[in-house]
């Protein structure tokens, strides 16, 4: 590539152009290639890519020529800063081999799973997401039960809505492993709820990890403790029976 086409302005225009093309070319495949290109631009130039209004439909059926053309264009770009180049390399890898799978990954002899969150066991994934603020109550059962038990306690209902927001449900749909972990925890885990005047306690436990919701303190702190074996059903006991005694575990 000539020095003129490797100038900052040429690289800037090329990245914007390939980003625009990727919006339609990759609309029907997984991997979010447009975001990888956009982040590569930000890392290379240290600024956000200018806002682009794409007038073409982003649901145009993906065709092989358009993907091949996009891959060829990406390959012609000059080398970027290492961190930015890594993102473009990942985009090219997705176009040629598909995105990395989060489940049902077949390993060759001697091959190990990559060190990543989606390769943790489902109990650890479930705990990480809950600890990060994910809302496990997809069907709003906590609020419905609280309404049935305390129909006039509007303030408590609002606190439940604030603690278990609709937006926080989206985290479970980031990959198949996350949603799978939630479904297994719902099936095999334990839960306990007891609305009382002005307050609602809701506890969930799965694979020894206990999370407790108290509407008076819905942003509780994590506490170290042994993995629980049995949940204690008293609403004011924020602990679990573990293999080495009693220990507070996690609170959300």
Q: Would you mind describing this structure in some detail?
A:
This protein has 252 residues and is of the alpha+beta class. It folds into two domains: 90 residues, no CATH class; 135 residues, no CATH class. It is 40% helix and 13% strand. The strands form two sheets. The protein has a four-stranded mixed β-sheet with strand order 1-2-3-7, covered by helices on one side. Strands 4-5-6 form a three-stranded antiparallel β-sheet, with no helix packed on it. Helix 1 runs antiparallel to helix 3. The protein is elongated. The chain starts with 7 loop residues before the first helix and ends with a strand. The C terminus is likely disordered.
State the strand order across the main sheet.
1-2-3-7
- Low-confidence stretches are 55-65, 219-226, 228-252
Strand content: 5-15%
Q: Care to count the β-strands?
A: 7
Number of helices: 8
Instruction: Bin the helical content.
Output: 40-55%
* Rounded radius of gyration (Å): 24 Å
Mean pLDDT: 78
The computed structural class is: alpha+beta
Characterize the main sheet: 4 strands, mixed
The topology string of helices and strands comes to: HHHHHHHHEEEEEEE
Region (Disordered): 221-240
């Amino acid at each position: 590539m000539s020095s003129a086409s490797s100038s900052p302005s040429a690289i800037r225009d090329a990245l914007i152009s390939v980003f625009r093309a990727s919006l339609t070319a990759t609309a029907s495949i997984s991997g979010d290639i447009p975001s990888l290109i956009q982040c590569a631009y930000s890392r290379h130039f240290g600024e956000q890519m200018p806002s682009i209004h794409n007038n073409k439909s982003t649901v145009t059926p993906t065709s092989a020529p358009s993907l091949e053309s996009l891959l060829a264009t990406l390959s012609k770009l000059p080398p970027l800063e290492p961190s930015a180049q890594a993102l473009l390399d990942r985009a090219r890898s997705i176009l040629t081999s598909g995105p990395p799978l989060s489940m049902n990954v077949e390993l060759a002899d001697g091959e190990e799973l990559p060190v990543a969150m989606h390769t943790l066991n489902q109990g650890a994934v479930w705990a990480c997401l809950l600890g990060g603020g994910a809302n496990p109550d997809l069907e709003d059962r906590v609020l419905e039960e609280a309404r049935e038990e305390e129909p006039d306690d509007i303030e408590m209902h609002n606190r439940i809505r604030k603690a278990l927001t609709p937006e926080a449900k989206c985290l479970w749909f980031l990959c198949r492993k996350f949603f799978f972990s939630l479904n297994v925890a719902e099936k095999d885990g334990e839960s306990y709820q007891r609305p009382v005047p002005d307050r609602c306690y809701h506890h969930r436990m799965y694979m020894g990890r206990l999370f407790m919701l108290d509407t008076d303190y819905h942003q509780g702190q994590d506490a170290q403790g042994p993995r629980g074996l049995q949940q204690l059903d008293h609403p004011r006991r924020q602990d679990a029976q573990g293999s080495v005694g009693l220990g507070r575990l996690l609170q959300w």
